[in-house]
């Protein structure tokens, strides 16, 4: 029987596990993530807004990131999205 997982807010200590999961799901490894973010980007994201994650036995199973638009301004897919629909001044992704 599988061990239950925990859903919680990520901390800076969780970033290595998040990066590992991200790396395994980038397009060059057959995944569907549209963009990869650096450790420093995740550090800023965790400090700025909630990053929610699912963990089982110390392994990151999934994560959900919200970030201010300013933190994503250089990401091409986000630029295209904002061009199509700019959102309001206090919006976030």
Give an overview of the whole structure.
By secondary structure, the chain is α+β, with helices and mostly antiparallel strands. It has a single domain, classed as Aminopeptidase (3-Layer(aba) Sandwich). The chain has helices spanning 15-24, 39-48, 76-84, and strands at 6-9, 51-56, 59-65. The model has no long low-confidence stretch (mean pLDDT 88).
At a glance:
By secondary structure, the protein is an alpha+beta fold. The chain has helices at 15-24, 39-48, 76-84; strands at 6-9, 51-56, 59-65.
Compile the SSE list and pairings.
Blueprint lengths: L5 E4 L5 H10 L14 H10 L2 E6 L2 E7 L10 H9 L9
Antiparallel strand pairs: 1-2, 2-3
The strand order across the widest sheet is 1-2-3
Task: Tell me the number of strands.
Answer: 3
| Gross geometry | globular
- How big a fraction of the residues is strand? 15-25%
Tags for this model:
three-stranded antiparallel sheet; 31% helix; 93 residues; alpha+beta; Aminopeptidase; single chain
């Amino acid at each position: 029987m599988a061990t239950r997982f925990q859903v919680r807010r990520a901390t800076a200590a969780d970033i290595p596990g998040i990066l590992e999961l991200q790396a395994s799901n980038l397009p060059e490894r057959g995944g569907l993530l549209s963009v990869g973010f650096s450790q420093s980007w995740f550090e800023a994201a965790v400090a700025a807004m909630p990053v929610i994650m699912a963990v089982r036995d110390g392994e990151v199973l999934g994560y959900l990131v919200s970030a201010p638009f300013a933190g994503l301004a250089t990401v091409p897919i986000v630029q295209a999205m904002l061009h199509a629909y700019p959102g309001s001044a206090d919006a976030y992704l």
